[in-house]
Write a structure and sequence with these properties.
There is one protein chain. This protein has nine helices and no strands. It has helices at residues 30-33, 39-64, 74-101, 106-109, 117-142, 161-196, 200-212, 219-239, 243-258. It starts with 29 loop residues before the first helix and ends with a helix.
Amino acid sequence: MSTPPPPGYRKVPSPIWPFEPHDVMFDVAPEALRDSRLFWVFFWPALSLLTGMTALYFATTLNAFGLAPEEINHDAVFRSYYALLMASEIGFLWWFASWLKSRQLAAAVFDIRPARFGIETGYGLVLFGMSFIFAIAAVDMLLPLLPVPDVPTPDRFNGGGLTGTLLVAASVIIFAPLVEEIIMRGWLLPKLAARMGGWIWPILLSAGGFGLMHILVDVPTMIYATVLGVFAGLARRLTGRLWAPIVLHFVNNLVASLSF
């Protein structure tokens, strides 16, 4: 005979499993994604941001050690930063994958393969166009309401010579979409969706986190990235995979880089 529940006990139903059969997370064990330790949900996105900040610190410190401000070779700092950033991102992904593997989640989180290449690529391109329009509108509407000084955005391609240009192109156009989508739409979004049993709040929360990851650039970029994150989340929800968000993010960064 089973022990009767205590007085006042009310069974709380588990959240609805939000993943449909076409979703890469559909066959993942629910307990793996519904881990009660909320700390890990946000630890990896925060560590990803810290990785970039650490790369900038070391690039600046190593190239400016013992020099007066006017003696610093800013081209060398520029090249060192993007080289260190990509190296640290590779190390970060290795550590993250090792942690996920012990929890039987690595295959699903890191699966960037499209199931339907043409359709998912099309979703990414169409949603990029929509995100670009809405993000520009959001920046134009919100920026005048915020007490933000008018500081010009630095030209990331104007420095470091050919090597610097190649490094920043590889980092911004290739590495950033891959790493950030694995973290935000491969890990954080499905983790929140599994815990909450739905998609609306997880998409908004993950988009907000994605925007905060860009606050160190400037406020307009943060606003823009938040809107972009909403549409990347929609791409992940509609296709069930990371390919469409990666395409969206890649095209966005390519367009942004060519506009400098």
